[in-house]
What does this fold into?
Amino acid sequence: MGLILVLYSLIAGLLIPIPDLPVIHESIRNIFYHVCMWFTLLTLLSISAVNAVRYLAGFDEKYDFRSVEAASTGVFFGILGLVTGSIWARFSWGTFWTNDPQLNGAAVSMLIYAAYFVLRGSMNDSEKRARISAVYNIFAFIMMIIFLLILPKLAQGSVHPGKGGNPMALVGLDTTMRLVFYPAVIGWIIIGVWIYQIKLRLRIINEFNEI
It folds into this structure.
């Protein structure tokens, strides 16, 4: 189902008529791909944070496995979000990166999660690693929400779509675009969760083989 929805969004996203918006013009089609990466990231990092809390509640190792694999898959989609966003920025603003609160918040969020994996890799004791990284995971999730969803909305002068008076904030998605955007979001989330489940199964198999 996820593959069907994504394939539909890839094809329809290039063919449907779109409103002629100033500044972003045809590049608005990237919303069917770029924004979906961040919805998938938010879903997976939410799964990761919930399992971190569940681990701390009972110290069951399976929740640590779920937490770390959901986080790694989520960060992968975050990197895809940064790449597709940079490409969009190049065509809309003439540069791959600019001093924008949304862009900077996304980059900082990814660095925070990068530190999460560095932290896990620095400890050999599995119980200590799981406990400390679970606490850090919850902290990272809260910081990600602040940097990615809250601060950009409060910032002034943002050139990001939907922020700071950008035309996208006024026009929004028309009916035709919604028929592509919503299936695209659902499809990418399904694929993201599917990848996470495969990684989790491989993690469990590897852990079992090491016993």
